[in-house]
Amino acid sequence: MKHFINEKHDMVTEAIDGTIAASGGKLTRLDGYPHIRVVVRSDWDKSKVALVSGGGSGHEPAHAGFVGEGMLTAAVCGDVFASPSVDAVLAAILAVTGPAGCLLIVKNYTGDRLNFGLAAERARAFGHKVSVVIVDDDVALPNLPQARGLAGTLFVHKIVGAMAEGGANLEACTIAAKRVIAGSRSIGLSLDTCSVPGSLKEDRIPFGMAELGLGIHGEAGVAQVASAGAADAIAKMIEALVADMPRTPHVALINNLGGASCLEMAILTNNLLGSEIGQYIRLVVGPSAMMTALDMHGFSISLCELADGDEGFLKAPAKVTGWPGCNSVTTPAVLPLPDGLTPIRAPASAHAPTREFLTDCCKVLIAAENDLNLLDAKSGDGDTGSTLAGAARALIDAMDRLPLADHTQLYRAIGLELSQTMGGSSGVLLAIFFAAAGDASSSGMTMRDALMAGLDRMRQIGGANPGDRTMVDALLPALNALSAGLPQAAAAARKGAKYTATLTSAKAGRASYINAEQLEGHIDPGAEAVARLFEHLAS
């Protein structure tokens, strides 16, 4: 099973019950399971205009996650990617509508239009005041007569929700909703399709491609385009968003379609705000998962023109779980590093042979990046090659400020550089190694003895010993054999690296959390890096 569910037919009701149970009493539901699934504000007293929305499930936190003070009064939940029934929508209207009336916020899909529309007619027949607005913010196909409703729907929920909370009447809420819809535009992009529980996954997007202009139900986008990173993705989406876009202040909503990591979403946000339309974005909502397509590895961007008063409505408190808040876009002041973190460096000095030697060593590590990452993926998190290559690139960039003519100071300078540019425990351990080697060199030790002193200090602090399946298994024998010559040191390093492939348990590093079956036959990536370095030097 690829999903954490129980029975397929119980998915939506169990999800609703979990949402309500965790709401702290803010939410409740109507009776009527499993055919009528309506989440309602617990504190609703029918004195104000009610806002009702909903649609198919699978878009969580939409729509139940936006029920509460300041946003929706009720959400009607259908099956996954399926419109709720007329009776379910009607039950919601009748349950929450008082003399002030009710506004239905409907996304522009045929099933939603029909079911919400007929429910509105039946509610009017009961004597209720009901208005309906249709959200059609998708700009993927500009000539489409009926554009889809996407995450721009949330602008309506929030702005009109704040108005209704403040006592605005049904006519004012309806006019504002139509204005917000007219000023909203959205487009989505994904690297993969979503996985619908109980159905086969459709793998229609090849590796290296992305789908542009897709909806929130797993349906295909308008085009498959080359995927060339975050900035390229934003540029492709902006091309569609800027068509007929007024150059006035806007709010941007950055929506995770369900499967993008928080890291990716933050990068995409940075690229959006730094793009050609960034100058028109005054407010930002997210990045966050707000209207998802189950686990789709993609995101959408929604823009909305700001009218007078909208900023206050968008920033007004909303006691709901799904709204991440709305913030002003500002340029933050960057604080300087504290004095204690600004190292005292030895003066730079030139020495061509040392520069060439160091540069060659760095190039070996950069060339080995992908191979070391693949090895690390067998026993760790797959980033050893990138970590070492990043440190190597940083050292090459720092070459002009290193004391190349003074090897004692050079060891210390390399240690400082690695401590600032190399992430994780590897950076700390190698910084300790070179700092201790510099201290040993200053007392008159030979290069080999100074490096051995550095290794001893690194082992003492890091706790790694021979047989623990780390770089020590290759580095210690290499340094022991160095007095006999570089070829002997390289052979010893390679023998030590191969030895790590026979070890089925690690006592240090991330590999210590991996079982024997995954470790056996795979060389430790740190030991492999040491072996490759010495083999290059010997050649």
From TrEMBL:
Keyword Kinase: yes
Leading EC class: transferase
Domain DhaK: 7-323
Molecular function via GO: ATP binding; glycerone kinase activity
One cellular component (GO) term of this entry: cytosol
DhaL domain span: 352-539
Lineage top rank: taxon: Bacteria
One biological process term in Gene Ontology: glycerol catabolic process
SUPFAM superfamilies: DAK1/DegV-like, DhaL-like
EC number(s) given by UniProt: 2.7.1.29
Keywords: ATP-binding, Kinase, Nucleotide-binding, Transferase
Protein name according to UniProt: Dihydroxyacetone kinase
